[in-house]
TrEMBL record:
GO terms for molecular function: 2-oxoglutarate-dependent dioxygenase activity; iron ion binding. Keywords: Dioxygenase, Oxidoreductase. This is Ectoine hydroxylase-related dioxygenase, phytanoyl-CoA dioxygenase (PhyH) family. It comes from Actinopolymorpha singaporensis. InterPro entries: Phytyl_CoA_dOase-like. It comes from the Bacteria. Pfam families: PhyH.
Length: 261
């Protein structure tokens, strides 16, 4: 893996200072090709959903999705930030179609999630080139040190969340996360971030993956949580979903799917 950071210590220092860090060329082109096939398969199965809304509730019976978030290259990065006992909390494709992709208004992830404590890290895997033109992630470096602000509804613009942070954000402080397919951007649950609409002719698809240490409790009436999967180390405090079994003709075929049968 070629990374923009030099080593784990460097990654942690940048993350602690800025609230984010970028790793380059984490996932190979062949697997990214399969990820693209997965996105198309999900959209065909769920025409009722906008492509920005292919969320964690679809994961429970999806062997490829669980295979992807279990990839050692991704879990190794997550382990740098949450420690050796790792579980999945959630994952979500935000796939902005050309010309009509919705924005994600400014927010802090920690304002939404039922986690105690808020010990969690997001890996954002680029499936497409991610640029300012097609609505790449934008974030405010250092804002992970701010208090967690409330959220307010915003119906003035159609957006992925329908909400925005209830404080003013100086967009001049924001930086663009320009990524190539296979790159991974890592960010803190309290960093202020969002993305603009995609008005370009190029799709912008990325997969968010939220990893937690197994000591972080998922606080919900719905347990096991639909996308709670134990990935590495001690199982900790949460109940987990069983890893889905691959059934030919029912699931997306992928390299290694036989091992999931």
């Amino acid at each position: 893996m070629t990374a923009e950071v030099l080593d784990e210590r460097d990654a942690r220092e940048r993350y602690d200072t800025d609230g984010y860090v970028i790793f380059r060329d984490v996932i190979d082109a062949d697997l990214i090709k399969e990820v693209n096939a997965h996105v198309e398969w999900l959209q065909a199965r769920h025409p009722e959903l906008r492509p920005e809304q292919l969320g964690h509730v679809l994961m429970r019976d999806d062997p490829f999705w669980v295979r992807l978030i279990s990839d050692d290259r991704l879990v190794d990065i997550a382990q740098m930030f949450v420690g050796p006992d790792v579980a999945l909390f959630a994952s979500h494709y935000i796939c902005k179609p050309p010309f009509s992709g919705q924005p994600v208004l400014w927010h802090q992830d920690g304002a939404f999630w039922p986690l105690e404590p808020m010990k969690v890290v997001t890996l954002w895997l680029a499936v497409d080139p991610s640029t300012p033109e097609n609505g790449c992630v934008r974030l405010v470096p250092g804002s992970h040190k701010w208090d967690v602000a409330g959220m307010r509804d915003n119906t003035d613009v159609e957006s992925v969340l329908g909400k925005e942070i209830a404080v003013d954000v100086d967009e001049n402080q924001a930086v663009d996360m320009v990524l190539r397919p296979g790159d991974v951007e890592v960010h803190h649950p309290h960093i202020v971030h969002g993305s603009n609409a995609n008005t370009s002719p190029q799709r912008r698809c990325g997969l968010t993956i939220r990893y937690i240490p197994t000591t972080t409790r998922i606080v919900s009436d719905e347990l096991p949580w639909p996308s709670a999967f134990h990935l590495r180390g001690a199982p900790g405090v949460n109940p987990y979903q069983p890893k889905p079994v691959y059934v030919e003709g029912e699931h997306l075929p992928f390299r290694g799917c036989e091992a999931w049968s």
